[in-house]
């Protein structure tokens, strides 16, 4: 199940422009999660997940605080949660999750990226059934055996515990996200290298060099879209 999650995260935040864009996306996500319930992470599990994810991307406290204050205030700005599914070359599949205050703008932008880069949009459900919703938690300072022992003692069920890029990565059902973190925090872990709720493909495909270059361009453009929060796909990209 390995995906080298630390490297994936670092690639997303590798450029200054991407870093600032990631921070802006987190600002929106924090605001939306806080508006759904209490702006207190201890009383709002969705907000707590977003804040834990934000920590692993080193989102500045000022951005987090600004989003929370906006949610506490009188702002009535509303966002729609959208999921788009589509296809690329050679059986490649893509899921795009967005938060937007302008549905027409977002739909047109996502469709244009697919159409101009060798892809095409699918209907709802045409791709998602080939992915598994998954919690991914990464940490250092523990071995795989130690991590498994901690999880067993805490009576937390997981799918897999592996070593990837000098970190221990835990894969589990999304419902176990908080339980996994609490188990490790109680065992002395203070920071996580990865804290994600993601969609992992059940199978991967590889692309020829030209197709991969076009596919990577499409993914980059989707991730750069201001309304897109996450992009998932089933292509085994070469470094």
TrEMBL record:
Protein origin, superkingdom: Bacteria
Subcellular localization, as worded in the UniProt entry: Cytoplasm
Keyword annotations: Cytoplasm, DNA-binding, Transcription, Transcription regulation
InterPro entries, per database record: Integrase-like_N (IPR017856), TACO1_YebC-like_2nd/3rd_dom (IPR048300), TACO1_YebC_N (IPR049083), Transcrip_reg_TACO1-like (IPR002876), Transcrip_reg_TACO1-like_dom3 (IPR026564), Transcrip_reg_TACO1_YeeN (IPR026562), YebC-like (IPR029072)
Coiled coil feature spans: none
Primary subcellular site in the record, as a coarse category: cytoplasm
A single GO cellular-component term on record: cytosol
Molecular function terms from GO: DNA binding
One GO BP annotation of this record: regulation of DNA-templated transcription
Domain TACO1/YebC-like second and third: 79-235
Annotated TACO1/YebC-like N-terminal domain residues: 3-73
Transmembrane feature ranges: none
Family: Belongs to the TACO1 family. YeeN subfamily.
Annotated protein name in UniProt: Probable transcriptional regulatory protein H7C19_28875
């Amino acid at each position: 199940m390995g995906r080298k999650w630390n490297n994936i995260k670092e690639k997303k935040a590798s450029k200054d422009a991407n870093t600032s864009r990631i921070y802006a996306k987190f600002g929106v996500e924090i605001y939306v999660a806080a508006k759904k319930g209490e702006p207190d992470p201890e009383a709002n599990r969705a907000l707590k997940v977003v804040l834990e994810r934000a920590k692993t991307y080193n989102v500045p406290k000022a951005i987090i605080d600004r989003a929370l204050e906006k949610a506490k205030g009188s702002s009535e700005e509303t966002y729609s949660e959208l999921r788009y599914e589509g296809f690329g070359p050679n059986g490649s599949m893509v899921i795009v999750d967005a938060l937007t205050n302008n549905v027409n703008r977002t739909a047109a932008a996502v469709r244009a990226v697919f159409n101009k880069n060798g892809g095409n949009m699918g209907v709802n459900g045409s791709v998602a059934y080939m992915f598994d919703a998954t919690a991914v938690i990464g940490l250092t300072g523990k071995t795989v055996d130690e991590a498994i022992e901690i999880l067993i003692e805490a009576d937390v069920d997981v799918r897999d515990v592996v070593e990837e890029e000098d970190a221990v990565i835990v894969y589990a059902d999304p419902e176990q996200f908080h339980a996994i973190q609490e188990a490790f925090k109680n065992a002395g872990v203070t920071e996580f290298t990865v804290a994600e709720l993601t969609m992992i493909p059940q199978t991967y495909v590889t692309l020829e060099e030209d197709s991969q270059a076009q596919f990577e361009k499409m993914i980059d453009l989707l991730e750069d879209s201001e309304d897109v929060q996450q992009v998932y796909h089933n292509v085994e990209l070469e470094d």
